[in-house]
Design brief:
Structural class: mainly alpha
Largest sheet: none
Number of domains: 1
Radius of gyration: 18 Å
Number of helices: 16
Order of helices and strands: HHHHHHHHHHHHHHHH
Length: 286
Amino acid sequence: MRPANIVTSVADVLAGIAISGYFAQLEITVATVLPVLLLCLSTIGLYGGGVVMNDVFDAGLDKIERPERPIPSGLINIGEAATLGITLLIAGILAAFLTNSTSGIIAFLVALSAVVYDKWGKHHSFLGPVNMGLCRGLNLLLGISILAFAVNTWWFLAIVPIIYIASITMISRGEVHGGSRTVLYAASFLYGLVISFILYFSFVQGKVWFALIFLLPFTWMIFTPLLKAIKEPVGKNIGKAVKAGVLALILMNAAWAAAFGSLYLALLIILLLPLSFKLGRIFAVT
């Protein structure tokens, strides 16, 4: 299920909730916190289920390239894994529908996008990264959908995580056999584009200094291993760049929350970072 990565998906949802302005309009009570918890549970199910199904579809290839993974190593058989993945996806969709119908529809689209990527998308050099990015973009919208009408206002922000995750997916293709400097340079450009987008929106919202608190460490975290990978594009260095890019999503989401004036939510998101790091030491991230 990639527990460390699941924490980053919760950060996506919290960032989306900050963008929607949910807590700016409502008092914090049990009734107002419940939809937040439901959407967090939803993304846990969707992300966990998507990753499990990825391993199900990759079981044959993993016997050769990644025999340490749970299915080829014999820790769990493919039927049990498929049951777990499908159950998690359904639970994620149901939790979202308990919030509102818009959230439910978006959760269904997340699950659909994940399965399409797992089965077909990953095999396409261009569509694969975009497909994976779409999963994250929709996950941000899942958080925004806590106020259904806010999706109509901020839907286009999903483009930013699409670009970012597409970049990481491009990089990850070199994890096993080494990568191409051209691809790594392209990812560097796209990373810069993502940072520029967040800076722009923080400027528009008048919260650029708040956003910079999180954007600066985000920039350092993603570019340090990426520059090392560009210098020496071997599998080990590329793996580190991918892992840093995934975990840095928490900082990016904190920057989103800060850019929209939700400093408390930004700080809550940041608290997820040490948890993700800890889980990343215990469980595989890629």
